[in-house]
Amino acid sequence: MTLMTKFTEVFGVEHPIAQGGMQWVGRAELVAAVANAGGLGFITALTQPTPADLSREIQKTRELTDKPFGVNLTILPAINPPPYDEYRQVIVNEGIKIVETAGSNPAPHLPMFHDNGIKVLHKCTSVRHAVKAQSLGVDGISIDGFECAGHPGEDDVPGLVLIPAAAKHIEIPMIASGGFGDARGLVAALALGADGINMGTRFMATVESCIHDNVKQAIVDGDERGTELIFRSLHNTARVASNVVSREVVEILKGGGQFEDVKDLVAGVRGRKVFDDGDIDAGIWTVGTVMGLIDDIPTVGELISRIVTEAEQLITNRLIDMVTVPSSEELSA
Ligand SMILES: Cc1cc2nc3c(=O)[nH]c(=O)nc-3n(C[C@H](O)[C@H](O)[C@H](O)COP(=O)(O)O)c2cc1C
């Protein structure tokens, strides 16, 4: 049995499960493992220090899988923006056929991607942005609810409402993101009108994810209350692990502090120390509320196969058993 949806058809993957871009985490081993398991994995372009490194990471991924995979291009306002055009050129040159855009309007990137036969899955956090992206001609939407790791936007609408609200307006394939980690989530997303799910946090706690084991264990040990929302007052909210550093950032900003006052605390190098050295209090690290549903560190293959198998069982046993069909006597009464 397989779960076929508009998403699996349009994006050419076996299962309706994506692994979204993850800074420092979305690398060749994880992405290839997701591809080999029949999901859609994305290399995170900006994790690679230069466009040439991205090129090498794509080639490395190809050595590990012959299945389709994509590249995430996250476009965020920055004082010194990375050379987006050069990263985009590498994506095209390397023959990548699927890109996940996120962070801002994908319009400037669409002509080049489409001219080169690349499908664009745009990730956004509101119905209005999803509608806008659809009207611009993207090929799929990933709608990211308030539960998610990373940037949930400023509207604070959780998936239970955001997904069906978006489904009312979106005709192209749409996957649901934020808070998904198991078969129940996948079935719920399908019921709410999505064509699949995107997961970040769940994939961090897998054998093939390159982060330190301490971080994986912290995710297993953590619960659904284990995150903080930083940068609220700066209108650039990010959901990250609750630790001494993130709590201090929240306090400083609550007290009227500005970015300058927390700049050193949130520095990327400190966050890298968490993932590389396993010191979970060294800096800010991104994680979502779905931590509360994660109890193990399986291989990606085990995880995806478990989610798909249990989702099929959930639909064909538990849900179908709840549907009572009236007997012919009842119908004729
Ligand atoms: C460690 C980490 C880093 C992330 N970095 C990015 C990123 O660079 N670009 C992006 O579009 N999304 C990023 N995300 C968000 C994920 O792609 C995905 O949308 C999110 O994790 C979904 O929520 P979930 O964690 O509840 O599954 C990141 C998530 C995590 C956990």
TrEMBL record:
Single GO term (MF): nitronate monooxygenase activity
Pfam families: NMO (PF03060)
Keyword Cell wall biogenesis/degradation: no
The keyword DNA-binding appears for this protein: no
UniProt KW keywords: Flavoprotein, FMN, Monooxygenase, Oxidoreductase
InterPro entries: Aldolase_TIM, NMO
Protein name (Swiss-Prot/TrEMBL): Nitronate monooxygenase
